[in-house]
Specification:
Layout: H1 3-6, E1 10-12, H2 24-39, H3 41-52, H4 62-69, E2 72-73, E3 76-78, E4 81-83, E5 85-88, E6 93-97, H5 111-116, E7 120-124, H6 139-153, E8 156-162, H7 165-174, E9 179-185, H8 191-202, H9 206-220, H10 222-228, E10 239-245, H11 254-260, E11 266-272, H12 283-294, H13 304-310
Parallel strand pairs: 1-11, 6-7, 6-8, 8-9, 9-10, 10-11
Antiparallel strand pairs: 2-5, 3-4, 5-7
Amino acid sequence: MSDKQTKATPWRLHGKSRKPETPLRLRIIRSLFASVGKLLPHAAGRVAFWLWFRTYRVPAPAREARLLAEAADHSFQRDDKRIACWSWGKGPRILLVHGWNGRGAQMGSFVKPLVKAGYRVMTLDLPGHGQTAGRRTDIFEVRDVLCDLNELHGPFDGVIAHSFGMPCVAAAVNAGLQTEAIISISAPSGFDSLLKHFAEYLRLPPAIIADVERRLLAYVGPHFWKEFAKHYATSGEQRSLLIHDNDDYVVPPSEARELIQHWPNAQLMLTSGLGHRRILKNRAVIKESISFIQTDKQPPSIKASALLKAS
C-alpha cells in the first residue's frame, strides 16, 4: 500500500446518501437507444455524441439567489457569451468551479467561511450553465473561460472544483491558470470514466459506446485523449487535496483512488454518507478545505471525533 493510499481515511460524517429516482424522460431515452441502437448504431451514436455536450438546468433554490444578491458582479464577455461571474469579500483570491449541470452558487456553502477566513471568493456559471447562455459546452471551452478569468482576476491562492469542474481545472492549469492549491471534490478519473458513466446512465449498447468513443477521440485529438483518458494531473507543483465520498453513486470513490496514484503533491480524504452533492455543504469538508489552502504544508490528520463535532 502506497503512502498516498494510507492517507485515505474514511470519515463518517452525517446523513445517508440515497440513489436518485429515474425520471420518466430518461427511461424513454434509454428505451429508444436500446431499440434503435441495434438497428442503426451509427445514427444512434451520432445522437449520443450530441447528448454528450448537452447541458440541462435545474431550478436554483432561494438560498442561492440570496447569496448572489450579496455578491459583486464580475461578468465578462467571451466570444458571443456573457459569462456570469461573482465575488464576495476581500483578500487573496479563491476560485470555486462547479460541475456538469451545476451552478457557481451551488458551491455557496464555501463562501461565508472563506470570506470569514480573509479571502475574496470568486465563482462563475460555466457556458451552458446557470445564468451563462448556451445549452452545450465541452472541456476546451471551460478551460479557456477559466484561463480568461485568470487573466482578469488571477492568480488564485486556491481553486476548489466539483466533479466535472476538476478535469476542466486541470486542463486550465496546464494551459496557464495560476494557483497554489487545488481542492478536488467528487472528481471523475478521466475520459474513460466519463464515457463509462455516460453509457451506464443512458444504458447504451456496446456498438453505440464504440461509436461515441470514436467520435470523441476524433473531437479532442489523440494527444488530449491520452492525457485525460484514464487519469490526469496538473503540470505544475500545486498542492492538491482530493475529497471523495464512499457513498457517491455518481462518481464512485475508486476513481479518487485512481487519481491519487498519478497526482503529485496530492492527498486523499474519504468521507461517508454525503454522496456526490451534499458533500459540498458539509462543514467538516469546508473546514478541512480552508485549512489545506491556508497552510503551505500538507494538513495534519483530523480525528473523526473532531469532524463529527464540526459537522
